[in-house]
Structures are given as structure tokens and as C-alpha cells.
Fold each of these.
Amino acid sequence: MLRLIPLIFFFSASICCMTQSIIDQILEKPIIQVDKLDKTELHSKIFLKSDFNRATLGSNKSLARLKDKTVTQVDLVFTTYKEHISFNQLKLNRERMLELEKIAPELIRNPLIKWRLIGQNGSHDTEEAKNAFHGFVIHYRNPAKFGRSSEIKYLEAYLDGERDLSISTTTKISSSCPDFNHLGDDYWKYMIKYLKYPKGLDADPGISIASAIVDTCGTLKNIIIESSKGPAFDLAFISMLKNMPKWTPAKIGGTNIPRRVVLSGIFDKHLDLDYIELYKAYKSVSCKAVTKRTSVALDSTLYKVFNRNPEWQSMLVVTDVTGSMYPYIAQLLVWHQLNIKTNKEKVKQITFFNDGDNKKNHTKKVGSTGGIYHTKAQDFEIFKETLYSAMKAGGGGDIPENNLEAVLNAIRSCPKGKDVIMIADNYAAPRDISLAKHIGSPIKIILCGAYENINVEYLNLARRLKGSIHTMNEDITDLAKYNEGEIVDIAGKKFKLEKGKFIPMFSL
């Protein structure tokens, strides 16, 4: 028994070092500056509270709500106000992270979880800082247990021209965007006039991007710097936004509603930038809906991947249609509707899978889970009917899916397909990786929701099948070229190839 003690000590020390390394990486992230955390949107969030200037976390009973949920993001939230000039915020942040690690280590060690540091800069004294929220906000995704009819209504609304991917899925609505007009100036002209370049600086030209809610009275609230050019520029931008005259609120059916807007701040001391192109970019993303129900961030993964790869032909598309995937299904619907008008042969067949037609999880067997629906792609109405049938028949259940069973079925159903495309949920690994040995074709895997990290299961699958990974921002090819023991950088993360598989460096 005594001989085990050094081994146990070594293992414990290794885990501790790994955790410290992950925490270091998280705390190196840029701080998102906000006036005050918005706690009015409570859907799919858990708040773990800590007191001002204290590391200890309050009750963790709410963590029980995470059972059967997929955590997608964790925010470490604090105030930037200092009682004493010598106060070390980084030290306190680290202590809070270690407290979280004690009660929920998987939140820190799961590489698929996105982390944000949010600094609230609206407190001007100790009392205001004490009244602000400090601690962690855990964002999670609910399993698909509700009926699919609301999602189908949403998809129909999306096809009919309501193209806002952040609207609630519960109703088919038509709404306006907030409008700004001050003495004839729209937001863009107002920003050019009134955004002040920080004194004493002469940096390269650049852009800060903020989001804010235009409330029902037309006031800008909950300002968040989404993309920073630097602290001095952030302060100048926030100051301008806080001092703006009122906007005209968005409306639904004549009733004012809160709505998030995305706003650009141009810092260009010597007028070097192309303002026409910048204005076009600003107008294309300037308006988002704000709801208290489930909302979906503006994401264009499928549009971007298909547009980047026009050489894909005679496609055999295999797509997950479980409850987590409806925003990407919407993109597939619109892309295919447009594509079919110009090239009916570009897509040979589309196969939908829902992981078992609502089978109980314990009855799902690898290779025979079911819930797989094929449709020839040339008739859009039949394509749509088959999709909706697959959605109504099942919503998923547990997190792993029957991806490879669906691929094998699709290849057998349509052997003339040339490029095999799998549209998959980055948060849900295949339950049936063992079936990969039966697949003889390279697979192009489009990963949905791969914002922060790529699921290593899909990286290894793509390498094994001599395929590729495609995210909203990049195409990752030639994964088979790496050699055993090699450390590689993939999508900004380091992996080591061990025994033919990629291993995230922090988990070694």
C-alpha cells in the first residue's frame, strides 16, 4: 500500500498543475467592459454569487439544475472599482476560479466551454460596488424536451422573410429595428461627429464594436464592448454612447420592445479607412432582437462554409436535426432553396437524423438507433416535408448522437454521392465512433457551435477518415499529415498526436 503513495501524489500534483494551467489561460483573456451586468435575462443561466472583494462562493445548490444540460459558456463577473490602489484584481479572480474548481471542476476542465471575463465599470464607490453582482454566470443549453412544432413555425417564419436568427422560437412575429435620428444625423453620422479620439494617443486606425439594448423608452442600456481597440478607446466609445440622445424604440404590432443593437466606433485619426465599406458592414449586423425566451446568436456557419467551398459537387449531406440544431437547419433551408434554383445537381441527397425517434436512451444500440430520413434534394417541398417529419419524430434526448449510423445509411441509399458532408453539433460527440471502420469515404464535417474550441472527437474522426473540419471561420484540412508525437496548432489550440489521436495539450 505504501508504494502507491508516490504514484497518488504524482497524479494529484499533475491534476493540480493542469488546472492551474487552464486557469492561467482563462485569466489571460481580454476583459469585456460593461456598465453593469444585465440580470433581467435569466433564461438558461445560473448565477453563483461571491461578495465584493471576497473569493468564497455562496450556495451552490443551483448547480443541480445542470443535470442533463450542456454548459456552453461561463462568465467570471467582477467590478473594476478598487477600494485601495494596491488591490490585485487578478489575484482575486484566480482565487474565485479555484473556489469554482472545488465545487465544479468540470466547468474549468471542459475544453468546449467558452469563457469570458466581464468587468463592470459603472461603480464609483464601495457601496455601489457591493451592490453589483460578483461571481460566475453559467450559461447552459436545455435538452430538447419540448415539442418541435414551435421550431417548425420558426423555420417557416424564417423562410417567409423574417431572417432574424435571434428572435424567439415561440411565435411568428414581425418587428422593426430601433432607429436613431438626431437633427438629421443617423447613428453613423452622429458617431463620426461626436466620438472623440483619446488625447495623447496616435495609434493605428481601428474599430471598436459595442452592443447595447435600446429599451422601450429609447435609452441605450447594458452597453458591452464586444471587440476592443484598447482601454482608452473603450472609455471614449462608452462615454459617447452613454451621452447619446434617445433612440426610437423597436416595435411589434405598434408596441415598443427592447432590442439589442450592434454599434461601431471608428478611431481613425488620419482618415485612412474605407468608410463606405465600414458603413455597409455596420448596417448588415446593426439590429438584433432581445427576448426573455431562448434566443440564438447571429451565426452564419453553414452559409460561410458552403460559400467558401464552391467546388463541392454531387453532395450527400447528412445533418443532425435534434433540438439543438434548429438555427443551423434554418440556414440549410435557405441555402438549399437558393441553390436549387441555380444547380439542382449540386446536392444529390440530404439525410436527416434525430438520434432514435424519441427512443429511451437505454434502448439505443450502436448501428441500429434509427431516426434516419432520406430525401432526394431536387424538390424543395418534399425536402421540407421530410425534414419536418424527422424533427417531429424525435428531438434527441441524451447528448451523444448517431452520426455515423446516419452517414453509413446515407451512403448506402445514395452511392452516387461524391462529396459526403456531415453537419454536426460541436457539443454532441457521436455515440457510434466504432462504426468509422465501415466508412470508406472522406467526410467533410461542418461543426456548428464551434465558437471557442473544436470537439477533439470530431478532429480525430476527420483524421481517421482522411476528411476535414469546417467551422464558421476556417477550413481545417490535411489532418492526416501530422506525425506521432508532433505538437500542432489547430484553430488556435495546441494538440499532441499520441497513438494516432489528437490530445488537447492542457489535458496531458
Note: Confidence is low (pLDDT under 50) at residues 1-14, 162-174, 288-297.
Amino acid sequence: MKRSLVLGLLMFTAAACGSTASTESESEDSQRTSAEVATTSLSEEGGDVSPTETSTFEIDVWADNWFALHVNGEVVGEDSVPITTERSFNQETFTFEASYPLTIAIEAKDFKENDSGLEYIGEANQQMGDGGIIAQIIDKGTGEAIAVTDDTWSALVIHRAPLNPDCERAADPVSTCESEILDTPSGWTEVGYDDSGWDTATQWTEAEVSPKDGYDQISWDPSAELIWGSDLEVDNTILLRLSVAGATDGSDQEAEALEADDEPDDLVEEGTGGEQMAITSPAVVDGALLAAFACERKDDGVKASIPLAWSGVSTDAGSLAITMHHFPNPDDTTQANSYLTLWDIDPSVGEIAHGEAGEGGWFQGSNKDGTAISYTSPCSPDPDRTHEYTITLYTLSETPPSLPQQNSIAIDWAVLVESLESVTIIDSATLTFSA
């Protein structure tokens, strides 16, 4: 499906923080110079959509060992220390200007001497290396972190070696060590690229990555995580993508809808069913998501949705809607990651079985990254660094007329919540859990 976007002028300036050595990128996109400026546009039947106002952003990145950063298909910056440097750990800060929505793409590499995946070959400390990267993007206009690295990023490992770790001490690792090498997908940094077939990034702890030079020079947002592929040592080159919808217009109305139970006004009426509405899930026990329902694998680009059940729906209900979201920055409730959006649910429906969110007589919106009609499964590998997720059930007077009568990748948490302004919210119930 083509999406209608006209992306604003993308410009950047690099603010070097760390080593300032010049480097030549290994990717085709990185051959562009800092003097290049580009305007990217996509159109579809129905006309153009005007771009949002250009904003200024600052991004902090620390990588073991090298990275190149793209925003909306354009190179914003790359590690100032060449990947050919055997031991390099440093942080970089870049400032750039762009218009929402943003597509952030990062190519990250751990140093390897050759396709064996090893480093220090022929020396006493010949070994497998390990990677890791952390980043945060700050909207300079608001001072808020609008994106951080965590397990919500899409990830594709394109170089894995050695697949047989017992070759680590081999005298001739080039002929002994096995590898898996994929071609870099064409257009993977672009806005319209479909990464629904990718895996999600894996979060790693500081103890596992052991971040070195430069890491402590950045004041990291509490929600920013060290990420990589599923194997710190075997995964050598990884591509990462994240879509950021942008600053939310009408945030007052969204907050109003979310807090409707606490601050009822003329938009919210009490239900007449006599029973307090509630939403539950057998996948949530004692406020935590069971491991069996976390990190769901993709099947044809779609993840199995969380099972849900509810009761106490008002007899006045004309329609139901469900959202699931997570605030990357708990102090900023205007920016949310959207994991599930469903609308036009018949009030007679009282449950959705595991994996059945896309199978009923209702409509479904996009996954977290805006790349597929799907649910996004929470996935936090480190049990000590969990996140909070909220599922909200809305009882409505009718389905908001602005929502399409079909599945739509354009509908996420922010869009659905804003649409509620046009109807009466009779009641709402939430289920909050950690994962």
C-alpha cells in the first residue's frame, strides 16, 4: 500500500563529540556529502498531504564499534572512527532538521577482520568480538526524547559469523569459520520500505555489553536501552529501523480521553449497564505479561495478538474500540508507541482469543512501526528492565466517522484517540501490565 506523505527539507550538521577522524562509509548511501539536501515525497490517490513544520533534533549515539545514521532516507551522520579501526568505542552527537514523521535507520557494525567474524587474528587474544549500540533523539523544540533504542526497533542481521564458535582459536579461521551473509536490502533506509518481515532488536544490559569510552559522557534517557541482534558475538552487522509519527496535535483531547474515568465531562457519560466495565487477559498475571505471550514470532509479518476479555459494557454502547500503547518516556504522555488498535467492534463481542485480533468483524490498524496491519508483541529480554503497557477498552456512542471501514495502516494509537473527540465516550476501562 502506498502512503501519502510529503516529507520536509532534510538538512543536517554534525557536532563531533569523540574522535574526529575522517572516515569513508562502506554503504552506498554514505557516499553523499554533508552539503547535500533532499526533499522526499510519496503520493497516492486522494491527493498530497502537506508536511509538518520542520523541527530541529539532536541525536546521541554510542556504538561498539561503528554506525551510520539515516533519517527519511538521507545520511545524517556516521561514526567518526573508521570500522577498520580494531578497537574503537566512542559517542557521537549530531544535530539535524527534518519534518515529522521520521523514519530512522541505523547500520551498526562490530569490528571483524574478515568474514570469519573474528578479531585479533593470529595473536594470542584471537577471539569473537561483541557489539552493542544505544541512541536517543531529542526534539530541541520541546527538550523531550522522541525516540530511544529499545526492543521496539525492527532489526535485520546481514552478517553473522562464526556460525561455528569452536573455530575461534583455529589457525586458519578464514577457511574454518562459517558465516551467513545477506545482501543489504535496496532502499532499506527509505520511508516507504516494508520491514514487516524483520525481527525486533534485542535489549542487552550494561553488564552484557560492557560499554566503554564515551558511554558515560552522555546523560541517557532512562528508557534508552543497549540493543543488538539476538547474539552479541555472532551478529556482526545489523540494520535497525524505527518510525516516529511525530509531535501529537490535539494532545489535550488525547489526555482527556485517557483520563475520562477520573475527570468526566460533557464528552463522557456514565454507562447504564449497572456493572463496572473491566477488561482482562489470561496472559497477564499479577500485573505482568506471562513469558509465553512475550516476544511473539512473526508469521507472514504478523504477530499473534494478546488474548482479551471484557464485561460490563453499557447497554447504550453503539461501538467498541481497543488500543494498546506504551510511553517511551513516562514523563511525556503526548508521545506513545502503538501496539494494537481495533475499532468498530460490535458491543455484543466480549472477547478476542489469542492471535485473533485480525480475524473478527471489526477493523485493525498498524503495528508499532507502521509497516503492517498487525499487533506488536512486547519483548524485553532483560527481566530487570521491563516497560509498562496499557490496554484501553472504549465504549462509544458510535464508531468515529473519521475512521475507515477497513483495516488501515494509517491508524495508530494517536489517530484513534484523536478520533474519539467526534463521538461520546460512554465508558472506558484499562489493563496495565509490565513486560
Note: The chain has two domains: 5-244, 251-434.
